[in-house]
Amino acid sequence: MTQIFEVEGHSTIPTHTAPTIPAKLVDDFTPTLIDYGEHHLCPGCGEPIAMRSAMEAVEELGLVQRAIAVFGIGCYTAYSNNLDIEVLQALHGRAPSLATGVKRAKPDTFVFTVQGDGDMVNEGLQEVLHTAARGENVTCILLNNGVFGETGGHVTATTVLGQRTKNTLDGRQAERDGYPILISNLIAQLEGAAFVARCAVNNAGNVARTKKLIQRAFETQVARRGFSFVEILTMCPTGWFIETTEAPGYLQENLSPVHAPGVLVDRLAE
Amino acid sequence: MAADLMEGSEAIAAAMVAAGCRFFAGYPMTPFTEVLEHMAKRLPPVGGVCINAESELEAVGMAWGAAATGTPAATGSTGQGLALMQESFAELSYGRVPLVLLNMARAQGDYFQATRGGGHGDYRHVVLAPADANEASELVQLAFHLAFLWRNPVLVMGDYYLAHTMQSVTVEPLDFGPLPPADWALDGSSGGTGRAKLLSSLSQTKRRDMAGYDLGQVYVEHAQRIAEMLAAIEPRAESGFTDDADVVVVAYGTPGRYVRAAVERLRAEGEKVGYVRPVTLLPFPDDAVRRAAAGAKCVAVYEVNTGQMYDDVRLALLGSVPTEFIGGPSYDESGFGIAPDLDVNKMKDRIRGVLGRVNGQKAAV
User: Fold this and answer.
1) Which architecture characterizes domain B237-364 according to CATH?
2) Does the domain formed by A35-266 have CATH 3.30.590.20?
3) Residues near B152 by Cβ (< 8 Å), separated by ≥ 6?
4) Which residues in chain B have Cβ-Cβ distances shorter than 8 Å to A106?
């Protein structure tokens, strides 16, 4: 018989019988292709959501036993040793070349990169551009938060004008710090790019769209149409120096107007 | 197998294909360009891939990706291009990815780059230095064997003369013994098994193993593997006329051939000189140099640079025999190519100079 002890000022729950609704652990919410549910990324980070979307897409398209993910260097590298698909770790910026070598040597593999804006648009800009121009049959995924999150919030090549960073404390100014690179728009101009899209993970609708676009990019590679690219705007409240709860809105108001979400190229149907 | 007349670049390409190389990426630069051209011709017919990369950084990255799948792969350049690739060489070593690297060097200024490395941290890779196309054919194949045996990059150090000199070459597949299974190679198939493979310079340990993340431990274990590798690989050197030599001359690569010719002619003239030609620059043949130097009055070092291997010779001897540097930078107007100093008569004069000094000193005592 359940006995409930009332303590004044506290609601009480029975602790000596099983709860009517089973308790859930963090692993219960973890996609099967992510080995271990906990991560050490900051609260409010958008990268785990993007990684989850990519892993779900790999699984749902039946690519698990063909997939090789090539990781760049950034906060998201925390996932490089935490996936149940094969992973090759690259140097900062160099993932597209490694992906090229993997795919050319083993054309039946499914190859995608995971890179941040510092990795892809700063250090490795020529890598992604050449890989796209070559029409290399790989997918590059960019997690774009406009800062070097791992080093603590420094200005990158995609930082929007006015954005505060560790080394632009008064906000990025064009006359002093130059203009952001709109990498998806740049890649969309290259004939080798068969699919280019930009999306965000700052609300449920955008997360659902992100997963669909990743799937479309992956399908482009499976159909051997050439280079596919998905830019995902992710929250970085730590690097933006704002409250966690403010980050989705900050992304919407500051990043999205410059790095506008949408499908820029889709030649899968052609 | 019949011999073919070919330049060193082609012999190297043929040897790579014979060794099983099926992926090559490079960026043109003299005197490496011809290796790239020959690989572009030779790889597609055997089902291989050769890519003219957009830069040396991309060349080494592509080769790294191919190598990660267990495909025997190689890249290369001259010293300038290798300088760009150094960061990747270090990471390939930490990540345990076997890759063969070629330096078709301009003169011999890249000795330190090759043997000390310009990459970050505490890594090393084997360096092999052929002196002609036939030896290159063997050492290139050995490079693939050692790369896969130790899961580490191996550098073959060629030069302008080796690349462009035509000679009669026999390239046939060589067997250096069994290799461990490449169970680390990626092909996607381990996904979803709970044991998906990870090939990373940051640790090959997965989070699910709950072993923690300790990059320091990764580096310590890497250093132990490198030490084991360098201790296990037998250094190679060619030597001649060292038994009663007053002066032993040490030189590697193409200048090693000139020194050998100069020493042979001096011997014919009755001079007591000998030579040692290191074939493995790392591990350096310390014992061969010490044995050759035993009883000599001076060990002279000839290099087409300001004296880089000279350091390794002095480290091998640890002051037991006096040393003298008789090389020096020597270039044609292109800044590389034919070195005016590479002339057997000039070399004989320099060696005679050393003989005169050591015997003169002895007479003065």
Assistant:
1) 3-Layer(aba) Sandwich (3.40)
2) no
3) B92, B93, B96, B98, B125, B126, B146, B225, B226, B229
4) 69, 71, 187-188
